[in-house]
């Protein structure tokens, strides 16, 4: 079975949970292996699932401006990715240390929260849902996030109350530290994906997409976010 078809099958099962995604999928996650065992392997290939029809169920990917992104976000923070990371069946859970709070609960500054990143590793595949690019351990990011969705009368358990998801799979985070080779901004081609794109070659890219319009919007929003929150 091709990697794209395999992930699409998993994704369709995931979508059956509807608005219960945040809590229901968290309860069903089964950790398969520590993240570091995948991130540096040259034989891991990208499988890009970038369907707007699907990703729009969970993410605000129609955002066009930094103002719209801020409006849709319950929490905006500057955070550093810790080594507390696990690879699950539908996502990577990343612990991040909150360095600054720009919007939302200011008492979170200095504390650890968890981000469920819509991507994961399975066998020799790196699955990116909605074009999401996994954060890198030790790097700092500006994060636009919302709490995990839950049923109306459900009470958060354990660390669920400090667990979040990106507002947008395209525009939900922006890196602050540019390492050599990072911050690369270009579209991927179908030919490249068909031939196989090693994760090691694109792991430092800001965003993964085949669409020029999404890339241009990302570049504009990133410029506005950094100039407003970081360089002001």
Structure in words:
This protein has 232 residues and is of the alpha+beta class. The chain has one domain (3-230). Helices cover 28% and strands 27% of the residues. The chain has helices spanning 3-15, 21-28, 36-39, 52-55, 66-71, 190-195, 199-202, 212-230; strands at residues 33-34, 45-49, 75-87, 92-103, 112-117, 119-122, 125-129, 140-147, 163-166, 173-175. The protein has a 5-stranded mixed β-barrel. A 3-stranded mixed sheet has the order 2-7-6, covered by helices on one side. A hairpin with a 4-residue loop joins strand 3 (75-87) and strand 4. The longest helix is centred in the C-terminal third of the chain and has 19 residues, at 212-230. Residues 1-25 and 27-31 have low confidence and may be disordered.
Task: Based on the model shown, name its key terms.
single chain; 232 residues; alpha+beta; five-stranded mixed barrel; three-stranded mixed sheet; 10 strands; 27% strand; globular; disordered N terminus
What's a concise summary of this model?
This protein is 28% helix and 27% strand.
Per-chain topology:
Elements: H1 3-15, H2 21-28, E1 33-34, H3 36-39, E2 45-49, H4 52-55, H5 66-71, E3 75-87, E4 92-103, E5 112-117, E6 119-122, E7 125-129, E8 140-147, E9 163-166, E10 173-175, H6 190-195, H7 199-202, H8 212-230
Parallel strand pairs: 2-7, 5-9
Antiparallel strand pairs: 1-3, 3-4, 3-8, 4-5, 6-7, 8-9, 8-10
